[in-house]
Amino acid sequence: MNTDLPPETIFSGFKIATMANASTAFVCGFSGKPIYRSVIDGEYGLLENVSIGVRNGTISWLALEEEIPTHEPSLVQRVDGQGALLTPGLIDCHTHLVYGGNRAVEWEMRLSGKTYEEIALSGGGILSSVRATRAASEQELFDSAANRLRYLMMEGVTTIEIKSGYGLDVENELKILRVARQLEQHFPISVETTLLGAHAIPPEFKGNADGYVRLVCESMIPQARDLCSSVDAFCESIAFDLEQTRHVFEASAKAGLQIKVHAEQLTHTGAAAMAAEMDAVSADHLEFLSESDCEIMRHHGTVATLLPGAFYCLKEKQKPPVNALRKNGVPIAIATDSNPGSSPVLSLLLMGNMACNLFEMTPAESLAGMTRNGAMALRLQQEIGTIEIGKRADFAAWNVNSPAELFYSIGHNPCVGVFKAGKETRF
Known about the structure:
Urease, subunit C, domain 1, six-stranded mixed beta sheet, alpha/beta, globular, eight-stranded parallel beta sheet
């Protein structure tokens, strides 16, 4: 840290929820004195009467407000929080934001008694979105995804993961990944892209899942490697079995890509443990996760990403084992799983509320799940997820008195400012 260079922006007058781990030591960038956190709200890493200096989009110092040197006002922009809460920018670490059409009709069918599995096996579900996505142009996909993205950004999201998975052939999977990358070019948001070619078996490979897996491994992954950082797979009775999923991950590792997995959502398959043993970044859904799976995930550093929107929309009964994840020290991330079928959700704050009310998580755990642990689920924890010196200045400002209020009111958005690399966003 070089405190001799003036910052470009100083953030003052905020109550700051750093979301840093309890062991993090905060020291004033100028006097070297410790900056003490609030004892009452230690889980959020709260700091008061502290300012943040930002230079070149990065947090260059934290300092007690009374110790900040006076810089030339014409050179330094000052942001006065007027008592608002400042958190790290939110991270939605599991979405399927780029797709064609919608599945409102299938939602009606589920309300009439059809199960998700029945709809999928009859040609609906993911395959109905595949048909609409294949028929859509890149511009049409961009326009519809952009509308969805704006809602998430208005709630303080500054980093998002976008999976493919509704093309199910090489051409259309690449098309989805290109659109996801274009979103990052047009909006002040960081986009992490994931290839989910192994999402479902396409109609042209009906009865030949192994043949489709070969296509994914031998053609899709090699051609997508420059458009994504990770590869995902859906291991489930209505998708791919354990051995097929393993083949996808082996091909991913060979291509130098990270792996993620949709696992243990409808049944226990063992995919979460297998993926963890193969160095998976995260295992997601996890309603049927076992105690031994949790131990394996902890040992290998795999994040558990919980998706309460899908749990709610599918009216699932089996909850993910939050207590076992806590007991084993597995980091828990929270995401929207925004998709046209099982989680047509565009509110990460609502997911925080559901994580509390449906999964018995605390508000502090929910906020950690979309900041610190959300960053871990993308292996970006060295760059984002907490407010600490050296990390990117991605912030969200909120008109609330305490962090718990972020998830207390349903349908209310208290976000009053979003800052990407220190600059206020306009979208």
